[in-house]
C-alpha cells in the first residue's frame, strides 16, 4: 500500500480500518540466495537495495530481537558528510545524497531534515584543521562553509560568548547536514524490503555458521539451520561475536556509547552543534527534546549501559557551551554498543570465507552511513566487487599500513 | 644566597591565607619537597640509608612526620619527602647525599602549591571536594585524588587538619575551588 | 565502576585511564618479529563478551599499570593485579 | 481567593500563610503544601495541556510520576519548564505559569488538534508530508516544531550554582516510607553508617497520606518518631529532598539533593542542588509503588485522578478535590479512598467497583470533570454528576532503579503488576511495596529483614503493629466501550486506539509499540502508562503479559537539571587554568594570552602604538633575529628519567639512539607510536651517567609520561628506570638571537662561551650569584639560542633580571605567535605537522628511525602504505607573488588542474607571515613533495575563495645551513 496525505485523510475518515501491517512475519525458508544477519539499519538497507537496486531475490534478514533494535534505534540521529580523508568523504557524501532522496524512494517519511550542522572552533589550530577538512569536503563535491564568530553568534546568540573558558572563534558548517527520525529509517527500509519480497525474520538469533571447504553454506539459528549462497553480516556492536562463528578475529573492540535526551522544550536549537572544547554535541528533535551525547565510556563493554562520569562530562560540556540550560532536565540516558575499529573507520569487505561478507566497525558514525552502507554492501554482495565509494574499507588495511585515521589517534579504539 | 626574589604560586611575595566560615586555608611557601624512588632491586639499601638519615619511608597511602624530614608514599617504592625550605632548599642534593645510588632523587619543591586546611571538622568540606572517604580515613592517610579536575595529593593530619598539594600552575583555580566549596559546605 | 587496587584498595575507575586488552603486553621483539606478527598483536582483538583481561593506568593515583579481569557483559571485576607482576610472570624482563 | 477546598487535618502549617501566583492570579497556601495541593485547595483543577491534542488537564497524581500538571516555575533566568506542580514545594512568592498553550490555559487555540484528532493517529506523520520534497524543512517541519515541545526555556544564564560531592556509607536506603524507615532504623541501631534518602521534603512516604495506624499511633506520627530517632544517630545521614537517580556499577549511586528549590533564591554561596555520588556496597530500594489508572473514554479530564492521590490530598494536605466525588476501582485500595474521604466529610456519591461488574464508560466536562457515565453489570448506564473521580487500577512496584542494569521485571498475577526480576545491581536489595509487598506490615517486615540481610546483622527489632490487608485486585487495563478515546499515556496523548493501530500495523513488539506510538516517552517515562499499554497489546496479540514484557528502565529515575550534573564546571571554571611563571609579568605588560590546552600562554606582548596583532608579532620576530628575544617555554613537558637502564630505555622509546649521547649534551628525539606514526618530539639531555631530562611537546606532556610508565612497567618491567615529571618544578625560558649568549652571560655565573658551552650542550649551572639552574643550548628558532631553567618560584625574577641586566641588547619577550613564525621559518615540525597521521618519512625525518635496535613503532613504520615513495613529504610553500595570500588548510593542486579531489596533491599544515622573507610562508604535506621542490602549484582555499600560485620550496626557509645557531 502506498502512503500519502490523501491516504491518511481517507483512512482517518473511515476509522483507520485500511492500514496494513508494515511488514509480514514470515517463517524462515530452508534456503535463501542471500542472508543478511542483523535487522538493524544497515542490514535492512542492504536487503532493501539488494532487492530494489541490484534485482536480487530470495533474500532474508535475520534479527535476534526486533527490527530496528540495533544502533539505528539508539543513536542521536545526525546525518552529515563532513569527513576529512579520501577513504571516507566520498562514501559519506554518497550517503548524504541517498538521504536526500530517501523518503520518496521508500515512500516513508523519515523526517530527513537538513537544518545544518556546525562544528564550533575554539583555537587557531582547530580553524586550520577545519579549513583543511572543509576544503577536502568541497573537493569531493560536498558543501562546507567557514563561519566567523559573529556569524555563529547571529545563529545562537545565547551560547556562551562572553564568559567562556575556551571562547568560540567560529565554526565549520555543513548546511546539508541535519537529523533524521532514526526509528523511521529502520521501518521505512523494512517496509520497502518486505514489499519487495524480502523475508524479515525477527526473534531469530544466529548461533553458528556452516562453512564447508572454505565456503559458506548457511547459518545455524535459534529457529533452525537456514541455508544460503551468500551471507552478509551487519551486526555492529556484536561483530566480533558473530564473526567468531567463522573463526575470525577482528580489528574491533566493542564499547558503550551513551546518549541523552532532555524533557520536551519549545524550539531552542534549530540545527546540530558540536562543542569543540569538550565532549558535547546536540540537536533538538521535532518533538522538542534536546538530543545530545559525548564520548564513549572508554572501556570494552557489551552492557548497553554506561556510568555516571561520562554523563557528568557531557553535562559539563553542555553547560559550558549553553549556560541557559541549567534548569533544563535530562530525561533519559541510554547506551549502545559500538564497533570501535582501530582507525575509527568502518569495514565493508569480503572475508577469507567464500560467500561470507562483513559490514561493521562503524564506531559511532554508523547511523549517518546507513543508506550508503546498505547500498555498498549490497553492491559488494551482488557483484563481488566494492562500490567505488567504499574501496578503502578493507580488512587488510592495517597490515598494508593504509589506515583511515580521521582523528590521528592510532591503534587505540577508545580514542576514536 | 642569590639575588633572585621568590614569588608564590599565587603570584605574591607572601603566602596567602583565606578564611571561609570555620575553615582557614593557608598557603605554605616554606616546604621543600623531593621525590625519592628506589633503584631497581635496591630497596633494602635505600631503607638503611633513609633510616640513617632520618628519612621516613611510610607504607602505601601513608604519611609519616618527622624532623627535619617528613614523607608520604606516592607510588610503589617512591616517596615525596618534605623538609623546611629555609634549611633544606637544596633538599634534593641533601637527600641524594644520604641515599647515594640506592635511589633516584628529584627536586619537586616548585612543582606544587601547598594549602593547609584547618577547621574543627573538615568532613563537610572534603565530601564536596574529592572522592576520599575522609571520615573513615585514619590520621596520616595520604593519597592522590582529584579536586575539580585537578590532580592533588591529600594528607590527613587530623579530622580538622588537611594538607593539599596541587599543581603549582593551577594554584589560583585550586584555591577558588576550595573557597567556593567551603562557602557551600557550611 | 570501582577497581580494587592491589595496593590501595577500592578506587573509582574515574581515576584510571583505560588502554585495552592485556594481550597488548605480549609485545613481540622488534629485532626478530616482522610486520605480520606485529600487525596481529597490535590490531586484532578477541573482544570477548564475557571475561576480559585489560590494562588500566592509575593516572590520578599511584601511576601503577594494572591488569583488571572484568566481565564485559556485567562489568563485574573478579581480579586486579599489578601489570608489572603479570608481565614478569609472562617472562618479560628488559 | 480563599482556599475553598481546604478541609481539616493534614501535615501543613496553617499558622503561616504563603502567597503565590499561577497564571498571574494570586492564591494562598501553607507551608507543607505543594503547588498542586495549594491550587486544588483554591478550587483550581485545570493546570496544564497535553502534548499533542492540547487537552485540558489537572493533576493525575500527588507525586513525581505526574504526567499532566506541568508548569513553568519561576521567571527570568530561573524559569524552569515542565515542573511538576505535584512536587513543587510551595514558598512565599512562588510564581508559576501554565505552558504549551496559546493564548491562555482556558482557551488554547491548539485545542483544535483535539477536534482533528482522528487525523493525528499514531504515526500519521510517517505516511505523509513527503511531497513536494522541499516542503518538509520549509513548511511542515517548522509548523510541527513550533507546535511541539512543552515548556519554554529562557535564553538567560541560570544564575544559580550547583555543587557536587561524594558520600560513602555501609548501607544506602532509597525511600523513607515505612519500608525505608524500618530498614534505616534497623541498620542505624547496629551502628553502621547509613544514608536514608527520600525525594519528598517530608519523610514517611505513604504513611503521610494514609490514616491507618502503626504501632498504635497515626502512621505519620510513627514516621516522625522514627525520623527523630534516626536524626539523633551520628552514624545516620537523613537526606530529604534527595532523589536517587540511578544505580551504576559496583555500588555507585547518583543522587540529587534539592538544597534550595523550596526557597525563593538560594542563600549566598549555597548551591541550588547538589549531585551526590553515593558509594555503598549495599543498598535497599524502598521506593514504594505507583498507582496506575484504568483506561476508559475521556479518562483524562481535570478532576479525574488516582484514588491514592485523592486520598493523599485529603489526608496529607487537607484538600478535597471536589464537592461530589466518585471512586472507580478494581481493587480494595480504591475503597480506602472512599472511606477516608467520607471520614473527612467529603460527599462520596458513588463507588464503582469493576469486580462487581460496574465500570465508568465515559465522562463529561470540558475544563473540568462534570459527570461520569457508569455501566452496571446488566449493561444499564447512568450518569452521575461529580467534580472528582478517583481511579485505582492497582499498584505498580517502583522497580526502576533495580532495573537500571537491564534486569527485566517479572509479572506477578497475584497483584497484577511487575515485580523486580532476578539479577539486579549487585548489592541492591528490594523491600516493601517496591518488591510487591504492599501492606504496611509487609513493608515494615521486609524493610527490617532487608537491613538485617544486607549488613549481616543478628537479631532483629520488634515490628510495630500495622495493617496487613491482602491485595485483592482483578486486573482491568481498559474499559471496552464505544468509539471514543481512552487515554493510556496522558501526556503524550496515546490512547487505546493508538495501541490498536500499532497492533494492526504489526508494531507488536513492546519496543515497537513505544517507539511508534510514543507511549511512555513523555517526561514521566510512562510511570503510570507503560504497564497498561503493554497489557492491552498483550490482550490484542493473544500473548501473555510476561511474553509481551516491558521496555528497558533507564536512569535517571526522575528528570535531573543539567546544572546539577555539570556542577561547578561552567563558564570560566569549565576547566582549571594553568598559568606560566611569567604570567604575572606578562599581565603587567598587557600581553595577549591564548589557551593552549589548559595553559594560558603569552600570544604576543603589544607595545604602545601597536594596533594590529601583526605589528607586535613582526616586531618580536625581527627583534629576536636582530638581537635577542625571550620566550616562556615552561609549558613543554619535562620528565626526569634516572636509573642504570635509562639510556637503554630511551633507545626503546625513541626512534633514534640516546645511549650514545655524551653526558652534558642533548639531542633531538623522535618518538613513534607502535603503529609507526610520529607520536611526539623534543630534546632530551643527558645530565649525568644515569640521569636524563626529556622534554615533550606541551600537548603531549601527560600522554608521553603515561606511555613511558607503560613501557617501564608493562613492556620491560626489569629495567632500572625511575620517572618523575618536573614540568612545573622549573621555570624555563628560551633565549634566542645573535645576542642570546651575551645577555645570558649577564646572569649566568659560569663561562658559557661557545668553547665552554658548545651547540647542543646541557648542564647544571648557577645564575645571579649561586641560584641553581639548568642550561640547554638548543634552538627552535634557528638562532643562537639557549633554554635556561630555574626553580619556578624564581622564574618571574629571572625574567626581570635578564631584561634588566641585558637592557643594552634591547631584549624583547615574544609569545607563541612569534615562536610559530620562527619555527616555521626554520622548518621545525609542530602541532600542525604532528597530526597523528604522519610518519617520520612524511616529515623528512625517515633517517632518524634506527633499524639497528628495537624501538616502539620501528617495525610497523615499514608497512608498504607508510613507505610509499609517492607519499606525503614535508615541504615549504610560499606565494610566487609576495603579496599573494595562502592559508593553513589550503590544498595544493597542479596549475590548471580541475579543482576536484582526484587532483588533490596535499595541504598546508601551518602558515605564517614571515617578516624576514616578506611574505606568507607555510609548511605542508605534498605527495612526492621531495621531488617537487622548485615546482609551481596552486594553494586553494575554497572556503574563502582563495586560489594562489605558490612555489614549492625546502621547509628550511631560514639559514638552511644552520650557521646562526652554531655561531
Give your account of this protein's structure.
The complex is a heterotetramer of chains A (416), B (186), C (94) and D (967). Chain A is an alpha/beta fold. Helix content of chain A is 28%, strand content 27%. Chain A has ten helices and 18 strands. Chain A has helices at residues 5-13, 41-52, 89-106, 124-139, 149-155, 182-195, 239-243, 308-321, 366-383, 397-400, and strands at 31-37, 59-62, 78-79, 117-121, 145-148, 170-174, 178-179, 199-201, 206-212, 215-221, 224-233, 252-264, 272-275, 280-284, 289-300, 329-341, 347-350, 356-360. Chain B has two domains: 17-29 and 111-185, Gyrase A, domain 2, CATH 3.30.1360; 31-110, Alpha-Beta Plaits, CATH 3.30.70. Chain B has helices at residues 43-53, 85-88, 91-99, 123-129, 171-185, and strands spanning 17-20, 23-28, 31-38, 63-64, 70-75, 78-84, 103-107, 112-118, 141-147, 150-158, 161-167. A six-stranded antiparallel sheet of chain B has the order 1-2-8-11-10-9, with helices on one face. In chain B, a hairpin with a 5-residue loop joins strand 4 (63-64) and strand 5. In chain B, helix 4 (123-129) packs across helix 5. In chain C, strand 5 and strand 6 form a beta hairpin. Chain C has 94 residues and is α+β, with helices and mostly antiparallel strands. Chain C has one domain: 2-Layer Sandwich (Folate-binding fold). In chain D, strands 8, 9, 12, 13, 14, 15 and 27 form a seven-stranded mixed sheet that branches. Chain D has a six-stranded mixed sheet with strand order 41-42-43-40-34-44. In chain D, strands 45-48-47-46-49-50 form a six-stranded antiparallel β-barrel. Chains A and D meet through helix 1, helix 3, helix 4, helix 6 and strand 12 of A and strand 6, helix 3, helix 9, helix 10 and strand 30 of D.
